[in-house]
Amino acid sequence: MNAFPAAAVIIGFIVAIVLAAALGFLLGRSLTRSRYLERLTRAETTSRIMSQRTEDLEADAQMAGEITAAIGPLAASVKNLQENLHSQDRTQIEQITRLNSQIGHLSQQNLRLQESTGSLANALNSTTHRGDWGEVQLKRIVEYAGLLPHVDFDTQVSADRDGKRHRPDMVVHLPGGGTIVIDAKTPLSARMKGDSSDEPGSDTDGHDHARALLRHVDALASKEYWKAFDSSPDFVVCFVPTDGLLSAAAASYPKMIDHALGKNVVLASPATLLVLLKTVALNKRQADMSTSAAEVLRLGTELYERVGTLVSHVSRIGASLDRSVEDYNRFVSSLESRFLVTARKFPSTGIVADELDAVAELDTRARGVSAEELSRPRAMDFDDRGPTHLRDRQTGTS
Length: 398
Description:
two-stranded antiparallel ribbon, alpha/beta, elongated, single chain, 8% strand, Trna Endonuclease, Chain: A, domain 1, 10 helices, 3 domains
């Protein structure tokens, strides 16, 4: 009875070992399978991740290719832009260099201009220099108008009236013996004082300038130059060298022109004086043309009278030639009938062998003058349009 339980125990123990081994095997197999499944899952996950990364890399590569294709022209454009910018930079540098040089040159010119302006201002501060400047301006305008010195105008001409000597700046000669008296005035004192003050545009400066010009007008009117020169209009021209001086005075005192005209003084700027002198030059040319036309008319009359005398001489020469032809023919007739008849008998005597030629008479007469005006010359009657009998013949009147 003790052996059966031991065997049962051994068998149970063996069964337990077998079960334990089976369970261990099953557990190891299950663990191995789970590990295998885990590794397989990891591999699949890794493969899927690699596939996604590959697709991403391919997409990135394609995008990089597209970006490269798009960036290629842009890079060329950027390169061209850089080259253009460099070229523009060089051009700007050169222009800035030239500009600096020109600015330096302008600065030097500005300094010289300031010096010249200062010298001019100092010169114009002198009344004598201002007068000389006005006279020079006046002479230039007169010459520009086409008038000749000592022919059409004279400067510094003296004239005596009421025991006083008057000497205007210029006298312009008109056709027919008339004269226009011109005196140059340069009222700059008030303007220069105004330019040097703190308020150059003040009304006081303009009024002072207008009053200075009015004093010149009154002084010229008191001299009455038109009475000192023969055939002079009842006015004197007051020449102001610049339009600005006259316009500034007229702006400050609007009745300036009327005031001057009331005193027989004509205020003239360079523009208005040039128009006046151009008109004088035109009248002189027309007067010269009239004088030339009268001289041509006189010469034509004298020439026509001399042509009549010449025609009478030609007619007498023609008549004399006709008489000479008649005398020649009578001589030839007498020679043939009286002398050559006997002379032609010598060859028959054997003394000479050659016979004398016959002498022919002339049957041509001198051609007479066929024109009516020349065949019957008469004294000519002239008027302002030419020979009257020639004009009447052209128009068909007697």
